[in-house]
What does this fold into?
Amino acid sequence: MYNFTPPVTRLIEELRKIPGIGRKSAQRIAFYLLRSGKQDAVNLANAIIDAANNTFFCSQCYNITAVEPCEICIADREKTKICVVEEPFNIYSIEKTNLYKGMYHVLHGHLSPIRGIGPDELKIPGLIKRMEKGEVEEVIIAVSPTTEGNATAHYLSDILRKFKVKISRFALGLPIGADLDYVDSVTIARALEGRTEL
It folds into this structure.
């Protein structure tokens, strides 16, 4: 059986580690990079290295940033609202709607006992610390409407109730089982406008 030369095999295996990239996609990307020329490959590698070396989590909201605190945390926004999302890229999906002007908090995942992800693996303590300051009036739980997302939303709502704040969640309209990042901005906008109190 024919195997790719070791450097190509290594490239394919590294690409396969990216969520959503299977063997065939990894092969296509690898051969695209090799065909497109050495400079394009070097530019991509340098961009990855630059992002890895020069970004970190914001100490307030846990968004990925290159400045401390992040651009959203220092912006003139509604400090009384926090929208809780699973991943940093979810922020940009919501921002595209131009409807939400509050703050964010990134959990970096969702509860998933099967995969060994419990509350301690998420950025929940940082959210509680922000709530203890007493400035927040509403928390919008904007997690994906999956089984794990629903479990995360219920867990968070139970914790947040003691702070006597309005707790809401995106309205239905987001497809059940969908990843928030793959939903179009019109659907996200409708879900944000029609959020329901938990």
